Amino acid sequence: MKSFWKQGEPFVWVTGAALSVTLLMAMVLIVVVLVNGLGVFWPSRVATATLHDGGSVLGEVVRSEAVFEGEGERLQFKVGNRELYGLDFRWIDKADISSITYADDTMVLERMEYGNFYGRLVGLSPEAQAVSGGGDAVRQLRQAHAYVMQQKDQLEELDDKLASVNYRMDQLQRKEKALLYEGRSPSDPEIRTLRQKRSGLTAKFQSLHQRQMKQVTELRNYTATFADISGTDRDMALMDLVRFYQPNSMSVLSKVRYYMVKLAELLTGSPRESNTEGGLFPAIFGTVMLIFIMSLFSFPLGVLAAIYLREYAKEGMVVRMVRIAVNNLAGIPSIVYGIFGLAFFVYGVGGSIDRLFFPERLPTPTFGTGGILWASLTLSLLTVPVVIVATEEALGAIPAGVREGSLALGATKFQTLTRILLPMASPGIMTGLILAMARAAGEVAPLMITGVVKIAPALPVDGNFPFLHLDRKFMHLGFHIYDIGFQSPNVEAAKPMVFVTTLLLVLIVLIMSSVAIHLRNKMKKRYTYGTF
Amino acid sequence: MRDNNSVTVTDPIVQVKNLDFYYGTSKALHDINLDFQRNKVTALIGPSGCGKSTLLRCLNRMNDLVDGARVDGSIRLDGTEVNTASMDVIELRRRVGMVFQKSNPFPKTIYENVIYGLRIAGVRNKAVLDETVERSLRNAALWEEVKDRLHESALGLSGGQMQRLCIARAIAVNPEVVLMDEPCSALDPKSTARVEELISELREKYTIIIVTHNMQQAARVSDCTAFLFEGVLVEYGITENLFVKPRNKQTEDYITGRFG
Question: Measured on CA atoms in the order A460, A464, A466, A472, is the torsion positive or negative?
Fold first, then answer.
């Protein structure tokens, strides 16, 4: 028995168990996110429940739950039609239901507003019928809708043009304000040209806008009539319909196709319905760009600081203190960094930039308000200790012989550093960067006060000069999860999106780290010593 | 001539006079006086911690890197004082090359390893570099083994090959003196024999100062041998004489294996 303990057999079991528990927890998390996230876009069947009291309910059965007071279960239906019923969801006791059927002609409409509509197609307006090529009603609807969507795309091009004209007008106005601020008189020829240019643009804007309005009014004539379960007819403009489908009669293949379309929309589209529907592209873009800019700052800063600490600073009390301080910085709650970022970057640096370079716009802030640059800087401050520690360790792990070998050949310290030490330390530095990126991708708290928003009107990169707008606010997947999950007025409807967003965030972190790990392994192969 | 010194150095390349060395407060070398003959192999022997490596590293000022190290006394290389602030350490190390106990090739190709000294000196001429690689590798007796894989990583070589590569790297910059700090201690007997053979060949062109633990090796490869004990130069003599007829009791005890 004694030797049993001495051999450490139980210890092996304890270590194994510890590993299993960790893995299990991670697995459960991933599985929950995967199951809930991946299933969101699969079109589920729409049930028609006939009730004992003569009424009926149309909707997707979302989940069931045991009722303890009475006996049996109750079902939650997603009934949609928010503008009619006020609520998207309804609980119904199973005991009240006499039968559940799945009618083939039940149609689900995804709309720009008011969420899904569940009902039946009644007919098309004459205009809509005119552009469709005939056939049965659903086929006609499909054709008419395709036509309207095509028209709508053109309208969106107009939208982009309008935004661009608007941006240019804004720039001109700012220039004019700046000149006035400098003390030029309003009759100054330069100002007059600016005004002329602006009025030209205004006219262009007006005409574009009118054209757009006219086209919208015309398009609104293309409508279709749908009836809900109680038989109430509703006319809906086809341009308000994102897509429609009849889930009860869909084949597996068309369900797959629908799934793909939704997935594509998720990755490339913009959110709608206060972020509970539509795509996540702006948030994905914002997250990736944030991490990218963050790395751009924290990577060189951390590596340089670590080089000084390890290679140049004289080992002593001060360096030890600095090292302890750096290690402790990594443990400071991120919200504290956020507050610091807000005070220092946004109000301090940003405010100074505004006072120095954009005084004419005050009190409207330009850089003196949260933006992607400040959020990135705040995050890089938060992640720089990770990079410093990793770089220091990587430099310290290089055998002294290599360092001496280089110096003994007449290399300076700088040459040794750049030609030998940094390449050899690069895998370790990459590890630090991977950790930093993973940490940054998961942070939300500091972003909330340094520039993240629920809906950003424009991406930080666009076609307007200077193309990169680091002062702009941005969207972020992590904040998106918090926002739609806990701040949304319609939490129940947003729930699927929470899972999808979580899944995406995890995926993005996974992809970015995989790329970095791949790079690191390549470096490792090149720069690491084999065995002697 | 001092009583511990039986070597008449006619053409000294490195002259050490009254050298004291301190690590912090502890004295590692006591009043070393030693001249190294040009184009000869001089071995430094002695038990561990006797200061032979420290003495070696004084010659190209590698001890500068050690915190708290201090050197008193004079070291002259071809008559120029080494131990002054005005000495260009980079230039010194180019003239006094070094091979370490543990082979330390850089994580680069074989080719890049050999020309590292030239590269950092700013040599760009491809013909010169190519020529240097071949000459150095031939001199280091490695050319035949690696000529077909010059552009592969040096880390793929065997231990003995790596050490010869380090020798090639050291002689690529044409130093006057090559310091070797126990170059064979991590090698198997066959590689050791190969490197010893190489040392014998190299003595025609370079002055070699070798630190070794292995007395047979010192006897095999060196012309002169200096025996150090606890930081003191106990005896310096022609190798044959020192091993056959040591003049000092301590030397005799050491080489006969009574301690060490």
Answer: negative
Record the tokens describing residue A419, joined without a space: 């030609």
Q: How far apart are CA B100 and CA B103, in angstroms?
A: 6
- E strands, A418-493, where? none
pLDDT band at A294; cut points 50, 70, 90 = very high
> Is residue B4 assigned to a domain?
no
| Residue B87 within a domain | yes
Lookup: tokens for A334: 């991120």
pLDDT, tens only, A52-94: 888 888 988 888 888 777 677 888 888 888 888 888 888 888 8
Q: State the pLDDT confidence band at B3, using cuts at 50, 70 and 90.
A: low
Chain B residues near any Cβ of chain A (below 8 Å): 60, 62, 65, 67, 90-91, 93-94, 97-98, 100-107, 116-117, 119-121, 153, 155-156, 159, 162, 166, 169-170, 173, 186
CATH H superfamily, domain A283-527: MetI-like (1.10.3720.10)
> Between these two residues, B165 and A457, which has the higher pLDDT value?
B165
In this structure, what is the dihedral angle of CA atoms B191, B194, B200, B204, given to the nearest 10 degrees?
-110
Q: How many CB atoms lie within 10 A of CB B15?
A: 18
In a domain, B6, yes or no: no
B81, part of any domain: yes
Question: Could you state, in order of their start, the residue ranges of all structural domains in chain A?
Answer: 2-41, 47-103, 126-251, 283-527
Number of domains present in the structure of chain B: 1
Segment A98-141, tens digit of pLDDT: 888 898 888 999 888 888 899 888 888 887 777 777 778 888 88
What is the phi/psi pair of residue B113, to 5°?
Answer: -60, -45
Span A465-511, pLDDT tens digits: 777 788 888 889 999 899 888 887 777 778 888 888 899 888 888 88
Q: Which of A348, A324, A343, A335 is nearest to A379 (CA)?
A: A335
For residue range A170-202, list pLDDT tens digits in order. 888 888 888 887 777 878 888 888 888 888 889
- Beta pairing partners, B42: B209, B224
Cα(B189)–Cα(A305) distance, integer angstroms? 46
pLDDT score recorded for residue A416 = 92
Q: In chain B, count of helices (H) and strands (E)?
A: 11, 10
- The partner residue sitting opposite A408, judged by closest CB among B67, B91, B93, is B93
pLDDT digits (tens, 9 = 90+) for B193-212: 888 988 888 888 899 999 99
User: 3-class SS at A396?
Assistant: helix
Whole-structure pTM value? 0.81
Task: Name the DSSP class of A80.
Answer: -
- Of the candidates A180, A413, A416, A377, the residue with the CA atom closest to the CA atom of residue A296: A377
Report how many Cβ contacts below 8 Å link chain A to chain B: 80
| Chain-chain contact of B162 with A532 (C-beta, under 8 angstroms) | yes
- Go through chain A and tell me how many residues it has: 532
DSSP conformation letters of B71-135: EEEEEEETTEESSSTTS-HHHHHHHEEEE-SS----SSBHHHHHTHHHHHHT---HHHHHHHHHH
Which of B179, B176, B170, B164 has its CA nearest to residue B205? Answer: B176
Query: What integer is the mean pLDDT of A345-357?
Result: 85
- First vs last C-alpha separation in chain B: 28
- CA A205 – CA A167 distance, rounded (Å): 11
Q: Is B107 close to A415, i.e. CB distance below 8 A?
A: no
Instruction: Please state whether beta strands B232-238 and B80-81 pair in parallel, antiparallel, or not at all (unpaired).
Output: unpaired
Contact A532 B102 (CB under 8 A): yes
Token pair 């470096």: residue: A523
Stated length of chain B = 260
Residue A530 has pLDDT above 50, yes or no: no
pLDDT at A389 over 60: yes
Query: Is the dihedral angle over the CA atoms A419, A421, A425, A430 positive or is it negative?
Result: negative
Here the CATH number for the domain that contains residue B140 is 3.40.50.300
8 Å CB contact of A402 and B156: no
Judging contacts by C-beta atoms under 8 Å, the chain A residues touching residue B117 are 409-411
